[in-house]
Design brief:
Membrane topology: Single-pass type II membrane protein
Keywords: Glycoprotein, Membrane, Signal, Signal-anchor, Transferase, Transmembrane, Transmembrane helix
Shape: elongated
Strand order of the largest sheet: 1-2
Number of strands: 2
EC number: 2.8.2.-
GO molecular function, one term: heparan sulfate 6-sulfotransferase activity
Subcellular location: Membrane
Strand content: under 5%
C-alpha cells in the first residue's frame, strides 16, 4: 500500500512538472518568481539585486529624431516598401498585416485561400510592396539585408523596360 501511495505521489509530481513546462516554459517564468510581485523588482529590470552596476546598458543606435521621423510614401510614383523579415520577431504577423490592413489609396487585394496578395499601384501593374506576401520568396527564404540590397533592384527592375526603370 505504501508503494502505491509513493508511486502516486511521484506520478503526480512528474505530471505537475510537465504541466508547468507547458504553462510556463523557459527560465523567465513569472509564476515561479516571488520577487516579481514586489514593486522594486518591476521598477528597473537592468538593476542587479546586490546594487552592482549593470553589465548590460540598454542603448539605441537611433536618435530621437530618427525614431520620430515621418516618411512620405508615394504609392503612385516609384516608391517601394521592402519588408525585411527577421526570424522570430513577429515578422510573419507584421507582413500579413501589411498586405491585409494597411490603409492606402489602393490596398493589397487578398483572396481567400491564397497566401500571396496583389499589391499594385493605382492604375499600374507594378507592385509597391516587396515582401513574401506580395512577391513570394524572390530573394530566398530568409534573405538578409545584404541579399536584399543585391536582389531587390534586379527583381523589381527586371519587370520594367529599361527606359522606365527609376534611378535608385
Amino acid at each position: 500500500r505504501s508503494h502505491k501511495v509513493l508511486l502516486a505521489l511521484v506520478m503526480l509530481f512528474l505530471f505537475a512538472v510537465i504541466v508547468l513546462q507547458y504553462v510556463c516554459p523557459g527560465t523567465e517564468c513569472q509564476l515561479l518568481r516571488l520577487r516579481a510581485l514586489s514593486p522594486a523588482a518591476a521598477a528597473d529590470p537592468y538593476r542587479a539585486e546586490d546594487e552592482t552596476p549593470a553589465r548590460f546598458v540598454p542603448r539605441f543606435n537611433f536618435s530621437a529624431g530618427d525614431l520620430l521621423r515621418r516618411v512620405d510614401f508615394n504609392i503612385k510614383g516609384d516608391d517601394l516598401i521592402v519588408f525585411l523579415h527577421i526570424q522570430k520577431t513577429g515578422g510573419t504577423t507584421f507582413g500579413r498585416h501589411l498586405v491585409r490592413n494597411i490603409q492606402l489609396e489602393q490596398p493589397c487585394e487578398c483572396r481567400a485561400g491564397q497566401k500571396k496578395c496583389t499589391c499594385h499601384r493605382p492604375g499600374k501593374r507594378e507592385t509597391w510592396l516587396f515582401s513574401r506576401f506580395s512577391t513570394g520568396w524572390s530573394c530566398g527564404l530568409h534573405a538578409d539585408w545584404t541579399e536584399l540590397t543585391n536582389c531587390v533592384p534586379s527583381v523589381v527592375d527586371s519587370k520594367k523596360e529599361v527606359r522606365l526603370r527609376p534611378s535608385r
